[in-house]
Structures are given as C-alpha cells and as structure tokens.
TrEMBL record:
SUPFAM superfamilies associated with the record: P-loop containing nucleoside triphosphate hydrolases
Requisite cofactors: Mg(2+)
One Gene Ontology term of the molecular function aspect: metal ion binding
Protein name: Probable GTP-binding protein EngB
UniProt-listed InterPro entries: G_ENGB_dom, GTP-bd, GTP-bd_ribosome_bio_YsxC, P-loop_NTPase
HAMAP family recorded: GTPase_EngB (MF_00321)
Pfam family, one: MMR_HSR1
Superkingdom to which the source organism belongs: Bacteria
GO CC terms in record: cytosol
Domain EngB-type G as annotated: residue spans: 45-220
Record key words, sorted: Cell cycle, Cell division, GTP-binding, Magnesium, Metal-binding, Nucleotide-binding, Septation
Family: Belongs to the TRAFAC class TrmE-Era-EngA-EngB-Septin-like GTPase superfamily. EngB GTPase family.
Role according to the record: Necessary for normal cell division and for the maintenance of normal septation.
Length: 221
C-alpha cells in the first residue's frame, strides 16, 4: 500500500458543489474599495479570504478568472504596482481581498516598507479573515519571500492554502519537481491547509475547484 503524498492536490468537487459554487460566482461581484491603512478597512461583517503572493505571480489574473470578469482586478505588467489592499464583494456573502504583492517592487523604498507594514498588520489583525490563499508560481516554487509570509501566517494563526499559478507554463516533469519542493516547504508550517490547488488562469484549470473551496469557507463563516 503506497503512502499518500503530503499536501495532495485538491480533488475536483462533485457536480452539485460545482454548480452551487458557479452560481455564487455568477452573482454580483463588485469592487468595494482600496485600503491604504487599517482604519480604512470595511466593516468586519462577513467572512473574507485574501490572496497573497510575490509580485507578478498572477494574483489579479486569478481573481479575474475566478469571478469571470476580465478587468475586475487590475493586472499590471509592472511588478509591485498594487500598493493597496483591494476589497471585492462576493454576492454580499464574503469579501475577496487582493493584497499588495510582496518581494520585488518598482517603487521607492519608503513606499514599499509602508505597504509591507500594512500587509503584516492586516494578516495579524483582521478577525474575519478565514483563509489566506498563498499563490506560488508553478515555474519557480516556494521562494524565501514566500517563506516569510508563511511564517507570518503561522504566527497569526491564519490558515493558508497554497494555490499554484501558471500551471500551463511548465511541462509535467518540471511541475512534479516544483510540487515536491513546495510540499517539502509546507511541512514546516503549522498553519498550512493540507491541500494544494493547481491552477491556470489562462486555461481555466483548477478555477472551478478553487471557487468551490471559497464557497465552503464562506458557508463555514
């Protein structure tokens, strides 16, 4: 009997769950506001899930693919352009939160430091944050800056789940190597949710599965 892999890929949900998740994301999804300080956060009156990742990992593209809106989240070819915590209302059931990219950023050092402080304050202090989705590029695996965010989430006791992006950009053999490296990294983090989601915003792979996960977390409140 083979030993199951740690941090397996999330299974595709059943048809009923997929349809319920599709309907949730077919509802009204709107941009609420961009926040530059903790006192600007919207009322903590519903569960929220945030998306964190290195600059240029594909956060905006993933959010657009999830919501089926081409320009809901503004994708940029310039790493580090997003300097706010951007809130989106998911059918009045939950907030989806696009966090500033961390790591490399084409911005003055004081600006970078300011939004990195905001990022940390949010992750440590937002009581309605139910899950963080940490995006990892399938071409590169977990980097040192990703480890920093994961350690912060461990300290804050915020459950985080790794979402591999750009899965269509790598061959299967290379993807297997990156997944092995990612699984090894995750074993050091107590806050890591024990499943990985493999996605491609361009091809649509894994998007329905991630919608179903978000719906489940929303229902759990």
């Amino acid at each position: 009997m083979s030993t199951p892999l740690p941090f397996p890929l999330a299974d595709a949900p059943d048809e009923i769950t997929l349809e319920a998740a599709r309907k949730l994301f077919a509802g009204e999804i709107t941009f609420v506001k961009g926040v530059v300080a903790m006192d600007g956060l919207p009322a903590a009156d519903r569960p929220e899930m945030c998306f964190a990742g290195r600059s240029n990992v594909g956060k905006s593209s993933l959010i657009n693919a999830l919501t089926g809106r081409k320009a809901l989240a503004r994708a940029s070819n310039t790493p580090g352009r997003t300097q706010e915590i951007n809130y989106f209302d998911l059918a009045e059931q939950a907030f989806l939160v696009d966090l500033p990219g961390y790591g490399f950023a084409k911005a003055p050092v004081p600006v970078v430091e300011k939004w990195q402080r905001l990022l940390k304050s949010y992750l440590q202090g937002r009581v309605t944050l139910r899950r963080a989705f940490v995006l990892i590029d399938s071409r590169h695996g977990v980097k040192a800056v990703d480890e920093e965010i994961m350690k912060l989430l461990d300290t804050a006791a915020v459950t985080f789940q790794v979402v591999m992006t750009k899965a269509d950009k790598v061959k299967e053999q290379e993807r297997a190597k990156v997944l092995a490296q990612t699984r090894a990294a995750l074993q050091k983090h107590p806050a890591a949710f024990p499943e990985i989601v493999l996605t491609s915003s361009e091809k649509g792979d894994g998007i329905a599965t991630l919608r179903a996960i978000i719906r489940r977390v929303t229902l759990e409140g």
